[in-house]
């Protein structure tokens, strides 16, 4: 019987296992690369947070931009704009019947503020009358503004004045603390002006001594229009 080449299955199987295994080796990231990735994630998170804050603040920013920069009427405001604006200090005041009130509780409404002693001379009476009339002149927007008399001494308020103060907020304040917040124009006294405070609690405008009602009313109307998109009547906790 002639010789023949025959395959050996066992040998074939052994040969298959003699081949080296193919392994893929992944290198670990360098510490510098890991730090860079973390930094990029942190930066991205900060940008997203900033974007959310800008969206929330956009109505307020837009109204202030309209009033301070664009000024559609094309003329300067009558009142002097205060820069930087001064926030309401967290100090104690008292009602006329002696109840303690934190001044920051006034936040949440536009405020038209006057300052005078309890005796209230003719100039003080004129300011109180103007405050009431200017607020009433805002029509439906009057509910967005409070008029405030800050009494800077311990003199009693005359009984004859009290009926006219029914819609006012009247508080006694220490004059030293008051002077750290409001300030008069150079050469004038604190009681010679009317002051405007925005709903966020910032003193932002001072009307000149001897205020002209028509010009002051024009400024207040513009403030109400400019803030209509974000300010609502009443305080948030009411």
TrEMBL record:
InterPro entries: Thioredoxin-like_sf. Keywords: Membrane, Transmembrane, Transmembrane helix. The chain crosses the membrane at residues 50-70. It comes from the Bacteria. This is Cytochrome C oxidase subunit I. It comes from Ramlibacter agri. The lineage of its organism: Bacteria, Pseudomonadati, Pseudomonadota, Betaproteobacteria, Burkholderiales.
